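Teaching assistant here, posting this on the class forum so everyone can see the example we discussed in section. The complex has two components, and the goal was to see what a joint structure prediction looks like when all of them are supplied at once.
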Amino acid sequence: MYTELNSILSTTPDSFTQGEFILVSDRQSDASFLIHHFLSFYLRARCKVCFLGLVQSFSHYNAVSQRLGVSLAQAKEKGQLIFLEGLTESLSVLSQETNSGSQAMDFLRDPTVGLRRLYEFIRSSVSSSGGGEDGAEEWGPPVLLVDDVSVLLSLGVSAEAVLDFSHYCRATVCSQLQGNTVMLVRCDGEEVVDDGDDEGSERLLKGLTHQCSLTLHVQGLPTGYCRDIHGQVEVCWRRRQGDGQNTQKKLFQYKVHDKGASFFARGTSSAVL
Amino acid sequence: MLPELLLGTDAGGFLIIRDSASYSGRHLLKSFINAALNREEYVHVLGFEGSEEELRDGLKGSPTQRLHFHNAFTDPLGWTDHPAFTVYQFNFEELTHLVKQTSHPKPAILIIDSLSWILRHVSPPAVCKTLQQLKKGGAVRAIIGLLHADMHQRGTVGSVCHLASSIITVAPGMKGDEAVAKITKRSKSGKVIQDEEIFNIKEDFTVTVQSKLSHIGPKQPDPEEKEMDPTANLTFNLRLSDTEREAKGKLALPFVFSKEKKTALLHSGPGSGRILYEPDANDDYDQEDPDDDLDV
């Protein structure tokens, strides 16, 4: 959890806006440090977290979170964190014929069926927070984190199906249960002028942008690599805020450290001043 | 023109608000809902992209008892057991039935939020057919739809927009809460009016137009401007009188070498210096014989 980012977004683990759909995107850069931020943030906020880790193994996320001061293994034991490890789940789907495990990754067998099973897995895991066993701790509003949805495209799912999936996640998690959703989407190529026929990740990014309430877009520096500034992040609030502003945009530069990240206004890096 | 459109869409009118990822047109759509409610119209909202709470939350100050929300948000594809309205039900019969479930003294206004959601799952020809039938059907007085233009192929956007009687394309403005609206209005007589306005939306969803950007289309020439002589109020004279022309003819131009000038230059007065020149051998330079050794 990066306190500087919390002050930019004016949230703390004790008080944060509920029902938000946060889209984290990157272009020719790496925004996964923001996923680690949100993971540790919501665990500290005592939310019930459902994490779809499609990119890395559990031990990777656990190691990073440990540095940020949160133990994923403990959270998992306590029932606060539900972790779907995409790598091992997909392996079990491919290697075993019998339906032994969860059916969440069923789309791997036939990508055309869509992500309905994956959504059902999420719905059952986030809505089971209330009816726990005796002595189980009570958790706050549910949170869904996905790292990252572009992987689904590589696995053969169409952008349309991913958009349907994210719509259902938003309707259930954000609207019905008043929780939050954070999704990461990655784009490789240069930004293209919109002509409506773009494929895959660009289309996904546009569709998710229309759905979300807050975007964090990470880009490399336009001037190229720099040792002291790792890139810039554009924060854009799309919903009508309390102060009456329509869409608000802010641009920050950042540097990722070993145990955190610093955010500063453009041109105010310690290397410049 | 934006305030006129907010005042009321004509019967059988179809208005499209076109937006893109850079600026959401939903606030403007809510302004239209708000304006219609304040006009005591019956408003039916077909909501795919937002929940009823979200919509009603934004319209706290308006009379919402005439607002009917049809929930296509929680389950638009029928993934759960009891979907309220799925995207596959988007056809003329179902929609007419839906609107007529509640009886009104007059035809209602149908708000579609958004057309993009429908176009992603239903083929564009079927959507266009349904919209056209709704326009002619009589169950609804007017249709207002939101369309995310950057989500579809250009041809799809074009064919849906051809059905519309008015199109408002919104884009972010230069300053914080300003936005630019490009409006195309097709009146029943076939006249097309285009306009571009800068507007902002206040918290209570009232739209204020800041300024007009430009007037596109044939501009009426000013009749007074035609008569006016551009040479009327000049600080210099364009024409010459006869005496002036004579004086001009007499004037000796500086490059003309007259006799007086020549003598004045050659015979200088007493006391001034003179140049004496005696040619020497170097002056007798022959280009064809630079060394002067040829016996020519």
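For the discussion questions: Residues 1-212 of chain B form a domain with the Rossmann fold fold (CATH 3.40.50.300). Chain B has one domain: 1-212. Think about how each of these relates to the inputs above.
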